[in-house]
Amino acid sequence: MVPRLADSALLALLAEDTPFGDLTTDSLDIGARPGRLVMRARAPMVLCGVEEAVRLCQLTGAEARAHHASGDRIAADTVVLSAEGSAASLHLAWKVAQTLMEYASGIASAARLMVDAARAENPAAMVATTRKAFPGTRALAMRAAQAGGAIPHRLGLSETLLVFAEHRAFLDPGERAGHLAALRARCPERRLVVEVCGDEEARAAALAGAEVLQLERFSPADVAALAAWLAATPAAAGVTLAAAGGVTPENAGAYVRAGARVLVTSAPYFAKPKDIKVVIEALPAL
Q1: Which distant-in-sequence residues (6+ apart) come within 8 Å of 118 by Cβ?
Q2: What pLDDT score was predicted for residue 172?
Q3: Which region, left, alpha or beta, applies to residue 61 given φ > 0 means left and ψ of -120 to 50 means alpha?
Q4: Which CATH number fits domain 116-270: 3.40.50.970, 3.30.460.10, 3.30.830.10, 3.20.20.70?
Q5: Is pTM, for the whole model, over 0.90?
């Protein structure tokens, strides 16, 4: 697997950490001495970001290799990366590579927890992570979510037809069906998703031609009631239910049992990072 982040992005991360060099290593005059760096998981996790971590080491001049790939479930004390190079190169890469993997693995592990909970109820259920990652981190956050088995909800405004209440504020409520028909005509290759905030609004959107109903903060019981209505309403046949807002690993199964095919969430982005232990040791000089 190749890094998702380009060298330019990785070099920017390194420059952020060492804007004027490594004062301690340089002042100790140990930069040229050879050494080895080993990174291990402190606890079980779904690993992510190791390819970027390897490349960070290479960009500082070290030789590095990954012992596992992003998406692998690994046990505590598993070696995930090793590198050899000068003390200068290892210290330049160390903290950036470690921190990147810790945050990405936290997201991946949280996503996998929710995916497993959903698919225990329905193997076809999908967890879709939103674009609400911290600005500037979306590429890595989405890589991490995918490593955990989730799919992208929408990567940006250019990608998906998703009608929010904030869009409808500018439209005539009596022309709902006409507006949705116009969207389908203008973007025939896209599925039409409508966010709804209550049962009445959901039923109206389904009858007006929505293909996916994004249910904002519906309870599992509300989802079940809507799913039953859809099943008994031929004019709304084929509508997909996506539960959004307040979905957690603890209630994911309940939402899927109720009839949600997709769980839309930002929760994995706020997961606690997974600890990576780093050991750096000197090697005999050649």
Answers
A1: 125, 126, 127, 252, 253, 255, 256, 263
A2: 83
A3: left
A4: 3.20.20.70
A5: yes
